[in-house]
Amino acid sequence: MTDAHIVRAAAVQISPVLFSRDGTTEKVLDAIASAAKSGAQLVVFPETLIPYYPYFSFIQPPVLMGKEHMRLYEEAVIVPSPVTDAIARAARSYGVVVVVGVNERDNGSLYNTQLVFDANGTLVLKRRKITPTYHERMVWGQGDGAGLKAIDTAIGKLGVLACWEHYNPLARYALMAQHEQIHCSQFPGSMVGQIFTDQIEVTIRHHALEAGCFVVNATGWLSPEQVAQITSDEKLQKVLTGGCNTAIISPEGNHLCPPILEGEGIAIADLDFSLITKRKRMMDSVGHYARPDLLQLQANFDTQTVLKESLEVQPAEQFLIPNLNE
């Protein structure tokens, strides 16, 4: 990509159709179409939007959340499946790169998974949140380093992380060291109130400055009616409000369009890649400002599995049973 390269990005603040994988997927497809009509070449959706973020786990003790956990299993997304096929078709049809968060079901486990579809509809990245946060550990399994990749797409090199993964500086640095140009971040939204909104603001602007890249951040949103669907307890309802901050940030740490702090909407801005060079000329944290002779990051990008086939062939005599009578 040249310094003159410009990409139009869209960050979508959207509410799920609670308890419905298919309903939420339809909203995602409609939002892709809407963003594409505005000229967007990149469309970013919130964390685990499909079918919905497990808000129940934040307000219910583990002993009571079994029913809701099972319902999430039933509506979770298998990769690949008709859901991913539909998003791939939309990406290909409109020629846009799509980043969407899903609750992925892999046999008996759920994962917080980020999917990146290139503009030709190819699924170019499936990564799992490396460490679920606090209450989320009762819902999702852990990811691995295989997804810590800045990937080449039709619009540039993308890196993605979810929510409090941004508080893991080494995870962020792994993407920075691969020279991500656009960082796509995702948060659940509608949690914890203004303090979460403020924390997101600090987090995404700091990463843009430190990485010298654009940050396209999408958060979810719950309507008051949806909050009431999740809990009838008015005290707990207050916990499921605020905390939204859908925004697009330049490599200089500036907002490129007004952020969306409440309700549904699409933030759209043009990303002028010359700003990456402008920022990195002054401070390139993985280039001229780095000190690899003093500080280095060691990363394991292997896919982890419970079953590995041994490549070593043992000599047959090792398996002979000795004759105890001799």
Automatic annotation (TrEMBL):
<protein>
    <submittedName>
        <fullName>Nitrilase</fullName>
    </submittedName>
</protein>
<dbReference type="Pfam" id="PF00795">
    <property type="entry name" value="CN_hydrolase"/>
</dbReference>
<comment type="similarity">
    <text>Belongs to the carbon-nitrogen hydrolase superfamily. Nitrilase family.</text>
</comment>
<dbReference type="InterPro" id="IPR023919">
    <property type="entry name" value="Nitrilase"/>
</dbReference>
<dbReference type="InterPro" id="IPR044149">
    <property type="entry name" value="Nitrilases_CHs"/>
</dbReference>
<feature type="domain" description="CN hydrolase">
    <location>
        <begin position="7"/>
        <end position="273"/>
    </location>
</feature>
<dbReference type="InterPro" id="IPR036526">
    <property type="entry name" value="C-N_Hydrolase_sf"/>
</dbReference>
<dbReference type="GO" id="GO:0003824">
    <property type="term" value="F:catalytic activity"/>
</dbReference>
<dbReference type="InterPro" id="IPR003010">
    <property type="entry name" value="C-N_Hydrolase"/>
</dbReference>
